[in-house]
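New to this. Explain the following:
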Amino acid sequence: MDTEAQPTERDRSLPPAGPENTSGTAGPEGRSRSALVSRLTRWLPGGRITLTLLLCLLFPLALNAFVARPFQIPSGSMEHGLRVGDRVLVNKVAYRFGTGPQRGDVIVFDGTGYFGDADYVKRVVGVGGDHVVCCDGEGRLRVNGRSVDESGFLFPGDSPSTVSFDVVVPDGRLFVLGDHRSDSSDSRDHLGSPGGGMIPVDSVIGRVDGIVWPFGRATRLHRPDAYARVPDPATNAAEGTHG
């Protein structure tokens, strides 16, 4: 007796086998987003294409306003590291969630009322409470009694300063210098101005994190080690000002 199962005609009343139909199963949040997109595309001329173009436009604008912005180097005051025409990326959130600017950072700041009605790029040499002096017996800057070797970033042939100064940086202020000292208008040139040539931390736009153009010069900027051994003002006061 032939016991092999005989094929039977497929019941055509049943739905075909296949992936489960998930239409209509999205959660309320998904349906709400979909409805919002649908309303926007109906309202905008051009529909989804216009909406996509608007999003592509708004994203870099939001990035520029809140996170980072490009900045073109306007002068030779930061050579040889930053040259005229270089485009750098300014990190606008670098100091929002932690410590403020640190010695050695390259920053962009609004100089209105202090340097001039423009944005400037300089290196932070002293922060609030620091005692900055030029110069020691070897012609180097001294910060909190510690001599600083700036040869790694100072413009070749420049001295740390041809102007003598002896300042204590007020809290909430910064003492800034250009790396090309002989071609830089910085805190030294405004010692007799309001604020004593020291800019408010609140005027800082952000930290320069790297060169993005020209492509051949693209690189990340790092805080130099020259200031790593500088003691904090409180430590300096407790231990004396011995180099």
Summary: The radius of gyration is 30 Å. Residues 1-26, 54-66, 237-243 have pLDDT under 50 and may be disordered. The chain is about 15% helix and 25% strand.
